[in-house]
Write a structure and sequence with these properties.
single chain; about 90 residues; mainly alpha; Arc Repressor Mutant, subunit A; elongated
Length: about 90
């Protein structure tokens, strides 16, 4: 469809601008659920105070994977320390 009428073009342009301003980003495959849907097993093991090595053994993953997941949780939650992460995660549970 090709629109040539200036009034119709302005109308569609205004509608697009309005829709764009109110749009909400759709999470991509890697972003889906990152904001608050952490692996509950990981969170439980962190809450117990286990070291990363023990968490890796319990989850059956590598130490690097555990550290990457914890770092991602910290980044997503906007915190700098594991203590702050624990505080944020605990406040979500209550």
């Amino acid at each position: 469809m090709l629109l040539r009428d200036p009034l119709v073009v302005r109308l569609y342009s205004a509608y697009f601008d309005l829709a764009w301003r109110h749009a909400v980003p759709v999470p991509g495959p890697r972003d889906a659920g990152d904001a608050g849907d952490a692996d509950p097993r990981l969170v439980d093991l962190l809450e117990l105070g286990l070291k990363d090595e023990a968490i890796a053994r319990h989850l059956g993953v590598s130490l690097r994977t555990v550290r990457r997941r914890v770092a991602r949780l910290m980044s997503v939650n906007g915190v700098d320390t594991r203590f702050q992460l624990g505080w944020v995660l605990a406040s979500r549970r209550s």
